[in-house]
Specification:
- 58% of the residues lie in helices and 18% in strands.
- It is built from 19 helices and 10 strands.
Length: 435
């Protein structure tokens, strides 16, 4: 009698292997449920759509975030390449001692260059067109050579005429719109002209174009003219003084730490603004757009996760008889729950990492893809006139990519919990009653 009971226990023990969580037995059953069969084709189609949805959602999130990061980085590099990170303006008296102040600012640790500046709005005219508004920036020759965004991007001409004081540097788009090139004459008209008995008359003067530069940001290439500082002072009635001194820092993000050092070096009352304050509206709009795009594209991953729920629920209903047999053979409810959890989680995990791979491939070849679609459609995608940059940038961030992966995995895991719980609560007696 005792021997018969012992043999029966051995048979029951062999029916379902005793194993811990996520054992080889549970993984085997989950893998069998993932494989498609002829009568389960519809369930496999839903699982396939869930996989594709998660893959495309993750890839789209990575691509969009990378493009927006690259867009912001390129804009900042262009903006900060020709504009100072800190702008010093006078309060008590004009900046007639700009040469001495520039030397003191340059000696401050963390300041790479101090640039005295005279600015003014003018109307520029050339061979063709009715003229165009332009921003004239008067700088010293040694400073223009340090502005690598300008001096390192001379498309035609050179800095020789600028250095001798009888030439100006003009943006490429402005020169093209006026039909001018290096060596031609450009006429500038300033409303702040000469005072005569008949009132103030506009000042009109022609300059030879020493060189044509192209920064790569259309707004700057279409509006900026660089002029020797002494000539700009004479042209804008600012003899012996400058309007501001722009400081370029080795680390643009350290403006808050540099502010007290710069105030101490000034030795007088000055008003200090930084690049973040001057471009606050612009970069705030970019940040808002980036956050909204992230939330909208997250819905793609959420919809794909909901497809996992529907697919698993249908799988549970289809596998009711199998679940009942497993339970009668000794499988616990937690083991059944883990089996269906692994079935759904596998779709989310594989879809997520496939999306990461697709997103990385697209980001690495984003400009080639843009050119291909431009060629196919016969139109200009990402027009520089609208988006400021001449090519589509993409800069992947490890932190953001990791966040996207974790978000997709968490949504996928959460989506599998309810169907897996339903499977674990299935009553074997009810499931086998009509079999």
């Amino acid at each position: 009698m005792a021997k018969g009971a012992t043999d029966k226990a051995k048979v029951e023990q062999a029916a379902v292997p005793a194993a811990g969580p996520f054992s080889a037995f549970e993984r085997m059953v989950a893998w069998r449920y993932l494989r498609s069969r002829r009568k389960e084709a519809f369930i496999s189609v839903i699982a396939g759509f869930s996989f594709v949805g998660i893959m495309l959602g993750v890839a789209t999130l990575i691509i969009v975030m990378a493009v927006m990061n690259g867009f912001r980085t390129e804009l900042i590099s262009r903006i900060l390449g020709i504009n100072g990170h800190m702008i010093i303006q006078p309060i008590d008296q004009p900046l007639t001692d700009y040469a001495q102040l520039s030397q003191r600012f340059s000696a401050v640790p963390g300041v790479s260059m101090a640039l005295p500046l005279v600015e003014g709005q003018t109307l520029a005219s050339g061979r063709q067109g009715a003229g165009s508004g332009a921003l004239v920036r008067g700088v010293r020759t040694e400073d223009i050579e340090k502005l690598k965004e300008v001096s390192g991007n001379i498309r035609s001409g050179d800095l020789t005429g600028f250095a001798t004081g009888d030439g100006v540097l003009v943006g490429s788009r402005l020169a093209a719109s006026l039909g001018l090139g290096a060596g031609d004459q450009i006429t500038l008209i300033s409303p702040e002209g000469d005072v005569t008995p008949m009132g103030v008359t506009p000042r009109v003067k022609s300059y030879r174009i020493s060189g044509v530069f192209e920064i790569g940001m259309s707004e700057y290439d279409a509006t900026i003219i660089y002029m020797p500082l002494s000539e700009a002072q004479a042209y804008f009635n600012a003899d012996g003084l400058v309007q501001s001194i722009e400081l370029f820092l080795t680390n643009p993000e350290s403006v808050d730490d540099m502010r007290p050092l710069v105030e101490e070096a000034a030795g007088r009352q000055v008003h200090i603004t930084d690049w973040r304050q001057r471009n606050q509206t612009f970069f705030s709009a970019l940040q808002v757009e980036r956050n909204v795009m992230f939330m909208i594209l997250t819905l793609i991953v959420l919809v794909a996760a909901l497809n996992i729920i529907s697919g698993l629920i249908m799988l549970v209903k289809d596998k009711g008889r199998d679940i009942a047999i497993l339970r009668t053979m000794g499988a616990s409810s937690s083991a059944v729950m883990r089996i269906f959890f692994m079935t759904g989680a596998a779709i989310g995990i594989v879809g997520t990492f496939a999306g990461v791979a697709l997103g990385v491939i697209v980001c690495l070849n984003i400009e080639s893809i843009r050119q291909f679609f431009s060629w196919v459609s016969g139109t200009i995608l990402f027009d520089p006139e609208l988006y400021f940059l001449s090519q589509l940038p993409a800069e992947m961030s490890f932190g953001e990519t990791f966040s996207v992966v974790m978000m997709a995995l968490v949504l996928s895991f959460l989506a599998t919990i309810f169907p897996a719980w339903r499977a674990s609560r299935l009553d074997p007696v009810q499931a086998l009653r009509y079999e």
